[in-house]
Design a protein that fits this description.
The N and C termini lie far apart (59 Å). The protein has helices at 10-23, 79-94, 119-122, 126-142, 203-215, 234-248, 251-255, 315-321, 352-357, 410-415; strands spanning 28-44, 47-65, 68-74, 146-162, 167-182, 188-195, 226-232, 276-278, 300-304, 307-308, 342-345, 361-375, 380-393, 396-400, 404-409, 417-429, 432-448. It has two domains: 5-200, PmbA/TldD superfamily (PmbA/TldD fold), CATH 3.30.2290.10; 219-451, no CATH class. The protein is α+β, with helices and mostly antiparallel strands. The protein is globular and about 70 Å long.
Length: 451
């Protein structure tokens, strides 16, 4: 039977899963497909160092016997392999302790269609990627800089069928180009581009953005530790918002009182200029329109004008809490909390130039490196600035500065945003895509790194 992603049709996948459901003797059965074809080109020292294409199909089978649940995973999409996975799941369920909080698999209507698949992206070849990297290298060469980074082209497929009649299928493409241009004086600049349509990524423009930072990062000065006014690029905002989302916007941590949102719905928790929405249907997102239980994903106001509004749910925790699933279930073998996958932050009315011009003394930050938790309940994180950190004096970018370590509460950061840009950019990290503005933040805690 066919195993390569590019020759597996929608009809083949759905018909095979339906035959497998007919074979199952469990009270309830769910079959989920996670499928990815990744084409990747890595480059360093202005040379391509790796070119690969991988394809992986993962079939996740869940069977229900009363309140006993069994889960089995297969990497084959042929019918006999799925039958073996079903048999294994039933055997596993027979030795499980009944989960009295489990109610049922969901019975869901078809999800809304989204335009997420682009032939231009799916067919973007190694030659195309090499030509894009050549353009980056041209910019680097003009500025005596070497390039490094990665160009990822992904085609994802997902399917969910269950014995209650739920049937969903999704196919989407993604293009992500991240790059750093570096010089001989420990100077560097970073840029990233993401879109489902590869034709909307301009490698030359990204390289010029990174080169400008690298060229202007020679001979950095060292600043003292303390609170600073900072202007954060969308990539820096995204690194903070992503951890904020993991800490607070999932139902599992919410109902177990391990979320900063717990007990705060309807209360002001950040500045009234902050709105965060989970919105897979945003025209620039085109996210997968259902979760891995087959429930259509909902647009969810997480924070609206600074007020805590809600979290995302799967059916299991929604049934426990008396809520409705928002369609954010993970595949059954993943036990961590559901979280948003398509985060949109509300825009402001400022330009980046106006933010800089309004700042008497501050720091401009491109992005952070190695961001990690310090105190999850206080949303405290740490990390260092990287690849383009500049001093702002009297409304102008003046000198580069030595990278600094931040120790910052994200919630306090979002309480202290004095300006938000009208411009927003897409920023991907892990399995989450965010649409984010630039932020000007007051009293952001930065420390000089030890020598």
């Amino acid at each position: 039977m066919p195993e390569k992603l590019e020759i597996l049709s929608r009809d083949y996948i759905l018909s095979t899963f339906k035959k497998a459901l007919e074979f199952s003797e469990a009270d309830q059965t769910e079959i989920v497909l996670e499928s990815e074809k990744l084409s990747l080109t890595r480059f360093a020292d202005s040379k391509i160092t790796q070119n690969l294409t991988t394809a992986d199909n993962k079939v996740v089978v869940r069977t229900i016997e009363g309140n006993r649940i069994g889960v089995s995973v297969s990497n084959s999409l042929d019918l006999e392999s799925i039958k073996r996975a079903l048999k294994a799941a039933r055997e596993i369920s027979s030795v499980q302790t009944p989960d009295e909080q489990f109610v049922s698999l969901p019975q869901s209507p078809p999800a809304l269609p989204v335009k997420a698949y682009y032939e231009s992206t799916a067919n973007y070849s190694p030659v195309n990627r090499a030509e894009a990297i050549g353009k980056i290298n041209d910019v680097g060469q003009k500025n005596n800089l070497l390039s490094s980074g990665a160009y990822r082209i992904t085609t994802d497929r997902a399917a969910v069928l269950n014995s209650l009649g739920t049937e969903q299928f999704f196919e989407g493409t993604k293009a992500e180009l991240s790059l750093t241009l570096s010089g001989d004086n420990e100077n560097s600049g970073y840029a990233i581009g993401y879109n489902r349509d590869v034709e909307k990524i301009d490698p030359t423009a990204l390289a010029e953005k990174a080169a400008d930072k690298a060229v202007n990062s020679v001979n950095p000065i060292k600043l003292e530790s303390g609170p600073y006014t900072v202007i954060l690029e969308p990539s820096a905002v995204g690194q903070m918002v992503l951890l904020f989302s993991f800490l607070g916007f999932g139902c599992k941590t919410f109902i177990s009182q391990r979320s900063f949102m717990s007990g705060k719905i309807g209360q002001q928790i950040v500045g009234n200029n902050i709105t965060l929405i989970e919105n897979p249907y945003h025209e620039r997102m085109q996210g997968m329109p259902f979760g891995f239980e087959g429930v259509p994903r909902q647009k969810v106001y997480l924070i609206e004008n600074g007020i805590a509004r809600g979290v995302v749910w799967n059916s299991y925790y929604a049934n426990i809490a008396g809520e409705k699933s928002t369609g954010h279930a993970h595949p059954a073998y993943k036990t961590f909390s559901p979280y948003p996958g398509n985060l949109v932050m509300g825009e402001g009315n400022s330009s980046v130039e106006e933010m800089i011009a309004s700042t008497e003394r501050g720091i401009y930050i491109t992005h952070f490196w190695y961001v990690n938790y310090l105190n999850p309940m206080r949303t405290m994180v740490t990390g260092t600035t990287l690849d383009g950190t500049f001093l702002i004096e009297n409304g102008k970018l003046t000198r580069p500065i030595v990278n600094m370590r931040m120790a910052q509460s994200i919630q306090e950061m979002l309480q202290s945003c004095s300006m938000i840009s009208a411009e927003k950019q897409l920023y991907p990290q892990y399995s989450v895509v965010m649409l984010l503005p630039y932020l000007k933040v007051e009293n952001f805690n930065l420390a000089a790194e030890e020598a």
